[in-house]
Write a structure and sequence with these properties.
The radius of gyration is 19 Å and the shape is globular. It has a single domain (about 5-20, about 35-395), classed as Glycosyltransferase, CATH 1.50.10. The chain is mainly α. The chain has helices at about 5-20, 45-60, 65-75, 100-115, 120-130, 150-160, 175-180, 210-220, 245-260, 280-290, 300-305, 310-315, 315-330, 340-345, 370-375, and strands at about 65, 265, 275, 355, 360-365, 390-395. The protein is about 40% helix and about 5% strand. The chain contains 15 helices and 6 strands.
Length: about 400
């Protein structure tokens, strides 16, 4: 999920729960940051989220994170298994005033499970997530909140990470896949095949690119790092979705159309001019790769390679992590991404990693991944569908 949108969603959810206005975190001064945390901005609303993404990205490209970075994340957990966005004093009890949430918890589970050795912590976290599952099978950002596509997809990733089958995690006979299917738009009308974040007050579904990218990955039973199946080479067309796999393919078709005009997604705050949405574009690339259509995301990945540097510097570790996961999914060189070493830049935002390794891979001149040549698993994306001539080798972690 886009870093900026995640922050807005957190603020919105907090406002709804508290019934009061919440100041924008971007204007908040950075507090004294704890040792082990990635990033220098105020972690009040995204500390656990950005730490989880950073650790997942490092692990994906063969970097062993610093022990104190992993310990910081594990130390954020409450005794009941849940995670809040940030606990300034982990020694302080997690009382009713602490705003725990499904997104922080789901992301932390995925990171700790990927790194290994945290079975007790991830088990407790998943038990808590099960306890706050909604009757429609999904999850909202805050416990008890209406189910949304993004939160439900993050939790699906957490369940998968610990070896559980999401279709067997049910409430009142409904699984998280049932919840996602209810948020899928039909093939006729505006937003054909997309996913909505939530229904509006009248129950209407509106296409949402951010939710669609998350839901494509979630509906396929994958997590924040996605997957890299052999590319299908199939033409994407929206068809009536009677199961989660078709809903995911419909969502992928919507994302291809959304990227077609400018090679990137756009977003805008109320009253503001639309701007390129770098984070959601990276998420869309990863979603298309995970759905088997990485060839259709190559142009967007090249656009990110050319244009995302300033955004990533400002947004910090979560942004670098998103770019790493998307680039890895497309077999772009994460060590020479528009002239920048994304891994080095991510590592520089926190404690020095314990170990770093490299692997060799190939990428063709057009930026299209040659998946069947390298046979490696990717982080959160979908693969390429055709082979072109004139390939050249590029280093790939």
């Amino acid at each position: 999920m886009n870093v900026v949108r995640r922050s807005a969603a957190v603020l919105a959810a907090t406002t709804v729960v508290l019934g009061a206005a919440v100041p924008a975190f971007a204007a908040s001064p950075s507090p004294s940051l704890p040792d082990g945390l990635y990033g220098t901005s105020d972690p009040k609303y995204d500390g656990v989220w950005r730490q989880s993404l950073a650790l997942l990205a490092q692990n994906t490209v063969g970097v062993k994170p610093a022990a104190k970075a992993v310990d910081w994340l594990a130390g954020q957990q409450c005794p009941n298994g849940a995670f809040a966005p940030f606990r300034a004093d982990p020694a302080k009890a997690c009382d009713a005033k602490l705003m725990v949430d499904t997104n922080s918890t789901g992301a932390a589970v995925q990171a700790l499970a990927a790194l290994g050795g945290h079975e007790s912590a991830t088990g407790k976290a998943v038990s808590w997530l099960r306890s706050v599952q909604n009757k429609d099978g999904g999850w909202g950002y805050a416990p008890g909140g209406a189910s949304d596509a993004n939160s439900t997809s993050v939790v699906i990733g957490a369940l998968t990470a610990v070896g559980e089958k999401p279709d067997q995690v049910v409430k009142d006979g409904k699984s998280p896949y049932d919840a996602l299917l209810k948020l899928a738009l039909p093939c006729d009308g505006d937003g054909s095949g997309a996913f909505a974040f939530q229904p509006d007050k009248k129950g209407k579904l509106s296409a949402n690119a951010d939710a669609s990218a998350a839901a494509v990955v979630g509906a396929l039973g994958k997590g924040l790092t996605g997957d890299s199946p052999k590319p299908t080479g199939a033409t994407l067309t929206c068809k009536k979705a009677t199961d989660r796999e078709q809903a995911a393919q419909n969502g992928a078709a919507y994302l291809v159309k959304a990227l077609a005009k400018d090679r990137h997604l756009t977003s805008a705050l109320p009253g503001a001019k639309p701007q390129p949405d770098y984070g959601n574009t990276a998420d869309a690339v990863l979603a298309l790769a995970t759905a088997g259509h990485g060839d259709k995301a190559a142009d967007a990945m090249r656009w990110l390679e050319t244009n995302s540097a300033a955004w990533a510097r400002q947004a910090g570790p979560a942004a670098y992590a998103q770019l790493i996961l998307a680039a890895h999914a497309e077999t772009f060189d994460v060590h020479d991404f528009g002239g920048q070493d994304l891994v080095k830049l991510l590592n520089a935002t926190g404690p020095a990693p314990a170990r770093h390794r490299h692997k060799a891979a190939h990428r063709d001149d057009s930026g299209v991944s040659v998946w069947w040549m390298i046979g490696v698993g990717l982080v959160g994306g979908i693969g390429v569908g055709f082979l072109v001539s004139g390939r050249k080798k590029k280093a790939q972690p």
